[in-house]
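Researcher: We're teaching a course module on how sequence relates to structure. For the next exercise, students receive a sequence and then see the predicted structure as C-alpha cells, so they can try to spot secondary structure elements on their own. Here is the exercise chain.
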Amino acid sequence: MAEYRAAKAGINADAQARINSKYRDDVAQETLEWIKVLTGEPDNTSGDVDNLYNVLKDGTLLCKLVNAIQDGSVKKINQSNLAFKCMENINSFLEAAKKLGVPPQETFQTIDLWEKQNLFSVVICLQSLGRKAGNYGKPSIGPKEAEKNVREFTEEQLKAGQNVISLQYGTNKDQQTGISFGNTRHM
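Model: And here is the predicted structure for the students to work with:
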C-alpha cells in the first residue's frame, strides 16, 4: 500500500504535486454524501484525502455502490484485507461502472486508489457514475446528463447551405495595399 512506498523526488514529485493539486475536498465530500444516501455508508463523509482513501481503499463500498444502482452488478464482494482481493474489488467496480455507462476516459486505474496515486481521478469516476445513476432511477449528483437534440432539415435547407461560403476560406475584401510578391526589402 501507499504507506510503504518511498517518497517521489524530482520531476516525479512535481508531477504528483500537480495531480494532487486538482483534488477538491468539497467535491469529494459531496460524492461521499451521495454514496451514503445510496448505501448507508460511510459514517464519516469528510472530503479530506485521507478519509476518502480509508473509506474506499478496500473496494467493498465501491462494489456495494454499483450494486445499489443496479442489483447484481458485482456478483462477489471480497471481504478479505489481502491486497489482491481488495484490488479485485476495485477492478470489479470499474468493470461494473463501465457497464452502467461511465465512459472509459472518466474511470481510473486500480493503482490510483490502492496506492493513493490519483484520488482526483477516483472522484471524477464517482461523479460520472453519479450522473449515470439518474438513468437507473437513483439519486444523482453533478451536472445533469445531456439530452439528445436531434435536428431535422428539409431538402431545401440542405441545398441552401451548400451555396454558403464559409469564413474559414478567407476573404478577398480589405486586403492590405502595397504588398507585392517579388519586391525586395529596402534598408
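Model: If you want an answer key for the exercise: Residues 12 and 106 are 23 Å apart (CA to CA). DSSP finds eight helices and no strands in the chain.
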